Amino acid sequence: MEDLRIGVIGLGLRTSLALAAHRPGKGSVVTALCDSDPAVLKRQAGRFEAEYLTEDYRELLDRPDLDAIVVNTPDDTHERLAIDCLEAGKPVYLEKPMAITVEGCDNILRAARRTGTKLYVGHNMRHMGVVRLMRDIIRKGVIGEPKTVWVRHFVSYGGDYYFKDWHADRTRTTGLLLQKAAHDLDVIHWLAGGYTTRVNAFGDLMVYGDLPRREPGTPRPEGWLKDFDWPPTARRDLHHVVDVEDVSVMNMRLDNGVIAAYQQCHFTPDYVRNYTVIGTEGRLENFGDGPGDTVKVWNTGPAGYRGEGDITYKVPAAQGSHGGADPEILAEFCRFVRDGGVTDTSPVAARMSVAAGYMATMSLRDGGMPYDVPALDPELAAYFDNGQR
Ligand SMILES: NC(=O)c1ccc[n+]([C@@H]2O[C@H](COP(=O)([O-])OP(=O)(O)OC[C@H]3O[C@@H](n4cnc5c(N)ncnc54)[C@H](O)[C@@H]3O)[C@@H](O)[C@H]2O)c1
């Protein structure tokens, strides 16, 4: 089996994914790199043996030697770049979130259908051990039929990761309830077996609105992801535009009747996702979200507080970035490019997570008014449900 030859567009923080795709002799090799910033391109080139470097992504689209393209650029560029790749006939791995608006997602889905080119959206949490374990527990019926899902997301390094660059600017992301939460909204949908139809949310910019910012055009500070500041109010060198919320809470009703809630805070001391799923015959909760952490189930009762639970499951060991999810998702993408077929990620689900996050952001900026989530064109949904055939 020959390696798939992959071109990567965008070599910032998410170069971790490009490195997971570079496995010469083991299925895929990165042979072409693109970043619009020449300094970044030069710096990252040494980590790959890429034959071709360019600052203009359009130059990758005509190269017959590329089997697929990975798009790792900021969210507001996804729609244009993904559509251009699809129209050039290049199968595309598009990072999450799919786009920053519902319309942007639908334009990408329509381009995939029109061109017949394979589209894959990188919701790597579907390949995280803790998520797969929770899904297995639910599918085996250990907690009965899932009825409500509650997620708390503690983002300790939020001030550094999300308020020192483009993430903090709503024109480039819509907001963090879409940008960051797209992962968990997708997982909520996957665990609950439905898609959100109605949302409301509250949120605010509580801590990072008043801290010192950098001048426009100045790069992210040296060591910005190594030297974390504490307490959060000690953070400096924020992006010159900061107008997204650092706290948000969101409620959802799904099309199968499940009710869910998601909460996100960017100034916690610790980083962790905490999920609780309550079914008709029990409840699960994760304690830690990486390899070696646990998911506990309580499925006898009723009782008072019981810290131990009835069953404790361990999240399996894994190698690689994002708790082993990145090598797994890349392997799935390569299989999909070669053979097609069913995948654990889904472009329709990716669109539905953006749609829920987008409408929740509209709600929180409108005093918490409930909003309906626009339905996807059923013909488009059918095309993707049928494996893009
Ligand atoms: N799935 C995950 O776990 C995960 C984790 C982190 C980031 N992401 C996603 O990956 C994407 C990239 O995030 P990041 O943190 O690496 O951003 P980043 O700002 O660190 O890097 C983005 C890079 O893209 C380049 N770029 C911008 N526009 C370009 C264009 N038109 N052509 C070529 N290069 C261009 C920039 O110069 C920069 O080097 C985002 O969509 C983000 O949501 C996903």
UniProtKB/TrEMBL annotation:
**GO molecular function: any one?**
nucleotide binding
The family database entries (InterPro entries) matched by this protein are listed as: Gfo/Idh/MocA-like_OxRdtase_N, Gfo/Idh/MocA_oxidoreduct, GFO_IDH_MocA-like_dom, NAD(P)-bd_dom_sf
SUPFAM superfamilies per the UniProt record, alphabetical = Glyceraldehyde-3-phosphate dehydrogenase-like, C-terminal domain (SSF55347), NAD(P)-binding Rossmann-fold domains (SSF51735)
Instruction: Give residue ranges for domain GFO/IDH/MocA-like oxidoreductase.
Output: 132-285
Q: Which Gene3D superfamilies does the record match to this protein?
A: Dihydrodipicolinate Reductase, domain 2 (3.30.360.10), NAD(P)-binding Rossmann-like Domain (3.40.50.720)
Task: Quote the Pfam families the UniProt record gives.
Answer: GFO_IDH_MocA, GFO_IDH_MocA_C3
Record domain Gfo/Idh/MocA-like oxidoreductase N-terminal: where: 4-123
What is the protein name given in its UniProt record? Gfo/Idh/MocA family oxidoreductase
